Amino acid sequence: MNLKYITCSDPRNYNTIYELFDLWDIDPRVEIAVQMHPGKVSPDTERYKWIKHIFHDLYGFPHKNLAIHVNNDWCDDICNGQIPDALKPLFDAYSYRLQPIAKRIQLNMPQKTAENFNAQKLNKVIEYYNDKEFIIQYKPTTVNAVDALHKSGARFSLLFDESGGTGRDANAWRAPVYPYFHPQGYSGGMSPENVAENLTKISRVADAYDIWIDAEGKLKRDDKFDVARAKQYIQNALRWDEKQR
């Protein structure tokens, strides 16, 4: 099993850009994911301005991995073929080497979106932004949506989240769905303390594949993204990976 990304999700504007670079500098596979949704991250908020600042600072660092996780109505818009005005400048941002600054876009489909989205329209969005990797959560409410998108011929990746986005510890890890068609990542209750154990379990079902892992809730302390916990999570994942070689 090849560990492609070690994703740290949901830092916010109380985290400095220097703290994020400290994480990126640990290993080339480290990815930072920012959460985007209308309201709390709309263009007039401090968090949106902070995200724009990150994009500005990454102009000269095309090798750093940044992802956007899109939620709520903005996710619904994209899944039906529309890029929200607030997201378009971020989707269209490129480094000085003409590489996308946001390399991966994760669409966290609400249930109503998964039940009513237009697979062909979403496929057109994916084709238009063909230098990005689009990620769809794979959970009970999105199974039919994922199947429809797969049948449309779209190029996308899957995040298997046993917790359904709640951060609960996984009871079991699923083998990759649609093997060799869609890269797969794993999330759900991942923490600095259990990441090595979870990687061992994942390797039993995904031994021949490239995968990534994503942690969010258990990187927090006092409900805030904690850089020290993120470092520990990354380092423990890297120690596990080194032992396998």
Please supply descriptive tags for the structure shown above.
9 helices; 21% strand; 245 residues; TIM Barrel; alpha/beta; two-stranded antiparallel ribbon; 10 strands; eight-stranded parallel β-barrel
The low-pLDDT segments are none
Please give the largest β-sheet. Answer: 8 strands, parallel, barrel
Q: Give the name of the CATH superfamily.
A: Aldolase class I
- Series of H and E elements: EHEHEHHEHHEHEEHEEEH
What amount of the residues lies in strands? 15-25%
What is the structural class?
A: alpha/beta
Helical content (DSSP H or I, runs of 4+): 25-40%
Largest sheet strand order: 1-2-3-4-5-6-7-8
Number of strands: 10
Tally of DSSP helical segments: 9
Any idea what the CATH architecture is? Alpha-Beta Barrel
What is Rg?
17 Å
Determine the CATH topology. TIM Barrel
* Count of individual domains: 1
Mean pLDDT across the residues is: 94
Global morphology = globular
Query: Cα distance, first to last residue?
Result: 10 Å
Instruction: Output the CATH class name.
Output: Alpha Beta
Outline the structure in words.
This protein has 245 residues and is an alpha/beta fold. The chain has a single domain, classed as Alpha-Beta Barrel (TIM Barrel). Helix content is 35%, strand content 21%. The chain contains 9 helices and 10 strands. It has helices at residues 17-24, 46-57, 72-79, 88-91, 111-116, 119-128, 143-151, 195-205, 227-244, and strands at 2-9, 30-36, 65-70, 102-107, 133-138, 157-161, 184-187, 210-215, 220-221, 224-225. The protein has an 8-stranded parallel barrel, surrounded by 4 helices. A two-stranded antiparallel sheet has the order 9-10. Helix 7 links the parallel strand 5 and strand 6 (157-161). Helix 8 (195-205) crosses helix 9 (227-244). It is globular, with a radius of gyration of 17 Å. The mean pLDDT is 94.
